[in-house]
Design a protein that fits this description.
With 257 residues, the chain is of the alpha/beta class. It has 9 helices and 10 strands. The radius of gyration is 19 Å and the shape is globular.
């Protein structure tokens, strides 16, 4: 009697500047496992523990790594975040589109084809303004908790905006707002408006649907509402935005199996 064929699984690892994301897909290209841990932790064993657990739970056939640290782990292939984001988002949205991936250290504007091909892309300059690192630093200075920022900003009707894209100068600006007694909800709104303004200055195709992915929109969903309002575009948050790139990597691992 023949034994049943063993199911294969495929692992994508997105080693980002702030967080490392793991995604596992099955033979049907369905994401069946996702996990996130901080990147650059002093406890390297955290990464190894997750990897060991995933290999224990699933029959990992191929591994694709992506992100800033993609060369730090020996997988079967390495791909850029641009390619992985395009593939990952296209799995759920097979149409020509624009993807805005707001990460810890950069903003990527990706024009993507229906099958996940990268048609064009733009990235912000080397300054981290408008990224997750920028928000974290400014929010800390404003004594804002990341989890409360979206709800607070929704209560604001102010149009006050942080003028500086430099984190150091932006912190000084926030300090001035605090001395002036600016309400905390207006400060939260001001941080988001500065990011919206930053994105609005990047070349976004006006005739394509826009999909948001990445860590920033995961923890700051109010960004989507502001982009719809201020850019007057059809902007949606992708399913599982934090894992879009890792999922794309897993799908790429499957494609070469």
């Amino acid at each position: 009697m023949n034994s049943p064929q063993k199911i294969h699984h495929y692992l994508g690892i997105d080693l980002g500047s702030s967080y490392t994301k793991f995604a596992v897909v099955d033979d049907n290209s369905t994401m069946i496992h996702k996990q996130v841990i901080p990147s650059l932790s002093r406890r390297r064993e955290n990464f190894n523990d997750v990897l060991s657990s995933v290999n224990h739970l699933y029959n990992i056939h191929k591994v694709c790594t992506t992100g800033y640290g993609r060369n730090s782990h020996q997988g079967d292939l390495q791909k850029t975040e641009l390619i992985c984001a395009s593939i990952g988002v296209s799995r759920s949205y097979p149409e020509r589109k624009c993807i805005i991936d707001i990460g810890g250290e950069d903003i990527k504007i990706i024009e993507s084809g229906a099958s996940g091909e990268v048609l064009n892309f733009h990235m912000n300059d080397k300054c981290s303004a408008g990224t997750g690192a920028f928000i974290t630093e400014i929010a800390k200075k404003a004594e804002l908790e990341i989890e409360e920022m979206s709800d607070l900003a929704r209560k604001s009707n102010a149009n006050r905006i942080i003028n500086s894209f430099c984190t150091v100068f932006a912190k000084t600006e926030i300090l001035g707002w605090k001395f002036d007694g600016v309400p905390i909800e207006d400060i939260a709104q001001g941080i988001y408006l500065s990011i919206t303004d930053r994105i609005g200055k990047m070349p976004i195709p006006p005739d394509l649907p826009v999909f948001l992915c990445g860590g920033v929109v995961t923890y700051h969903p109010y960004m989507q509402e502001l982009l719809v309002k201020n850019l007057r575009l059809d902007v949606q948050i992708t399913s599982e935005p934090l894992f879009a790139v890792a999922n794309g990597a897993a799908l790429l691992a499957q494609s070469v199996a």
